[in-house]
Every structure is written in C-alpha cells, then in structure tokens.
Write a structure and sequence with these properties.
This protein is of the alpha/beta class and 350 residues long. The protein folds into two domains: 141 residues, Rossmann fold (3-Layer(aba) Sandwich), CATH 3.40.50; 191 residues, NAD(P)-binding Rossmann-like Domain (Rossmann fold). Helices cover 34% and strands 15% of the residues. The chain has 13 helices and 13 strands. The strands form two sheets. Strands 8-7-6-9-10-11-12 form a seven-stranded parallel β-sheet. A six-stranded mixed β-sheet has the order 2-1-3-4-5-13. Helix 1 packs across helix 13 and helix 5 crosses helix 7. GO terms for molecular function: NAD binding; phosphoglycerate dehydrogenase activity. Keywords: Oxidoreductase. Belongs to the D-isomer specific 2-hydroxyacid dehydrogenase family. Pfam families: 2-Hacid_dh, 2-Hacid_dh_C.
Length: 350
C-alpha cells in the first residue's frame, strides 16, 4: 500500500523527462476503490496512485494533481494547501463533504461519477431490496431460530401486494423501481422535478420511467404518501433541503408497522425521530446501509432492536460497480495527464 513517505516531488521514470501525474485517495476505507484503480493503471507508470491516512492528507495534498475524497471532508483549509490540484473527483456521487465554492476560488474542478452508467445505482437498488426482504422475513429472528433449533418460525412477510414509496426517483430510485415490478407491488415515487426528467431523456425512456411508477408526487406529497406505504425507501440526494427530512412529522405520518429503508445518506434520517419510533413500536423495522456517524457504533441503542438491520455502507460496493468506477477514475487521470481540461465520463459541479 502506497504511503506519503514513498513520494518525491520531481519523479522521473527510466530517464524519461515525462512528469508524473499523482492521484490521491483520502483515507484507507473503501479499500477496493483504491485497489481497482491501482490495478487499472498498473500499465501506466506515469500515473502514481496513493492512498494515505486521513490525518496525513493535509500535509501531503500539495503534492497531488487529482484527489479522491471518499469519506473525507475536503474543506477550504485543505483546498488551500492543494497547490497543484486540478480535479477533486468523488468515487461515486456524494459530494456533500467537498467545499466546491472554495475549490472554484482556487481554480480546482469538482466532479462526481454518475451512478447510472457504472452499475453503482443498480447495486444500491439491489441492496435496498436485500434490506426490504431481510426486514420482511425477520432476519434477526431467523438467526435466533437457527441457534435454538426451531423450525418453521418466524412467520415472515412478503413483498407481494405491498405498497412501496421511493423517496427520490433519481438513478437509484429508477433502478429500484425496475427491480420491484416483478414483485407485484404498488409503487409511489416522489421527485423534485418530473419535467426535468422529461427534458433530459428521450420520449421512449420517459415512457418507461412513467410505466414504473403507479403514482408520481412532489416533495409536498411525502407525508400523504408516507401514510399509504408499507415500505419507505430513501434514495434522496443529501443537501440542505433534504437533511433530516425523515423527521418526527414524517415518522408519525407513516403507517403503524411500516418499514423504513435508507441506502442514500445517514443524515437524511433524524436519529431521535427514528429511535423514538422504534421504541414506541410505530416503526415496524429499519434497514440502513448508511448511518448518522460512520463507522457506526456497534453498541448504539438502535442496533439492539430485533427489527433493525444495518450493513456497512456497501450498497454500491460490488465488483462490477467498483471496477467500472475505477476505470472512470483511471481514464480521467490519463486525460488529465495529457492536459485535458474537461474529462469525459464524469459530471462537473463547478
């Protein structure tokens, strides 16, 4: 594993005067994002890929041309140290931890990898279904039955016949809707702007999306739909408007015994509202791949409930999606090395 100590400021390869383009992965979690990128670029010695501990990033970021934040907050202080930085590119879509305004002031571009072309959205949609089925079939209770050598219990539920509310019919929401259709469920969905969907896609694509959803609503409809749904799946982007959107009012609007699944960002759920709803029994079950603080405290009271399932932020972490995104990162680094100011395959936000 590469470290900051392995770097030199003016690195040359085999007597060549070709300059090295350096890519920094911040922190050493989500390790396969680094491993697959390193593997993809293994035949390009003029691209150096390192991952360093979070505590070292402020001290070494000035040596790099491209940065992959992963879970690190890239604030204005860190950005001010990135004297050679050309691009901050997230390995995925989440950029809420990057100060894009500060990056713009320092002439640094900020971008994400769209979820629809890499398998990331599809992987997250599959995880949502995994959590839904785990809650319905009472996964924790089944594990207890195995230990107690009990057969034929617990009696679980089925997706068949349920009403599912998808909060945020973006890339992940659409992939989820496609996969839910064969389960014979009723699908409700909210989206900030349905007209933008119509403008951005072909008429055929828009018709397919419309066919996936039985009822379409806006942000103003979330409480009404919450009262109709047996399962609520949160697929929203995290921003100032959506932070804590699953609050006490929303929880009380949900049907008693309904399930809540979150494969987006932990901050979309108000911790106290969820905890109280679980304690009172109003919430039938909680399935989350993301948490309020990560890594999540395994002794947190929420995890002690038998109707709570949590996975370690792995919804998008599949071999297919990670190799696809690693290729995007690698290709972007190669384009950056050649002097391109606008790389293909990524979405700029500034």
């Amino acid at each position: 594993m590469s470290t900051a100590s392995s770097m030199v400021n003016e690195e040359k390869m085999g007597g060549s005067d070709e300059q090295i383009t350096r890519v920094l992965f911040c922190g050493q979690q989500f390790v396969d994002s680094y491993n697959y990128t390193k593997e993809y670029l293994s035949n390009y010695p003029h691209i150096q890929v390192d991952d360093v501990p979070l505590s070292d990033v402020p001290n070494v970021i000035g040596n790099y041309h491209m940065c992959i934040p992963r879970m690190m907050r890239i604030d204005s202080d860190i950005i001010s140290r990135a004297k050679q930085m050309k691009l901050i590119l997230q390995f995925g879509v989440g950029l809420e931890g990057v100060d894009a305004d500060a990056a713009t002031k320092h002439g640094i571009k900020v971008a994400r990898i769209p979820a629809d072309g890499t398998g990331n959205a599809a992987s997250c949609a599959e995880m949502a279904i995994y959590l839904m089925l785990g809650l319905l079939r009472k996964q924790k209770e089944m594990e207890i039955s195995i230990k107690l050598k009990k057969l034929g219990e617990p009696a679980g539920g089925t997706l068949f016949g349920k009403t599912v509310l998808i909060l945020g019919l973006g890339n992940i929401g659409q992939e989820l809707a496609k996969r839910l259709r064969p389960f014979d469920v009723k699908i409700l969905a909210t989206k900030r702007s349905w007209t933008s969907l119509q403008k951005n896609g072909s008429s055929a694509q828009n018709d397919c999306v419309a066919d996936l959803v039985d009822e379409k609503g806006s942000h103003d409809d979330i409480y009404k739909y919450a009262g109709m749904a047996d399962i609520v799946v949160c697929c929203l982007n995290m921003n100032r408007e959506t932070a804590g959107i699953i609050n006490h009012s929303f929880m009380q609007s949900m049907k008693k015994g309904a399930y809540l699944v979150n494969v987006a960002r932990g901050g979309l759920l108000d911790y106290d509202a969820v905890a109280q709803s679980l304690k009172s029994g109003h919430l039938g079950g909680l399935g989350i791949d993301v948490a309020w603080t990560e890594p999540f405290d395994p002794s947190d009271p929420i995890l002690q409930f038998p109707n709570v399932l949590i996975t370690p932020h792995v919804a998008g972490v599949t071999e297919y999606s990670y190799k696809s995104m690693a290729k995007v990162v690698g290709d972007t680094a190669l384009q950056l090395h050649k002097g391109s100011t606008t790389a293909t395959g990524i979405q700029y936000v500034n």
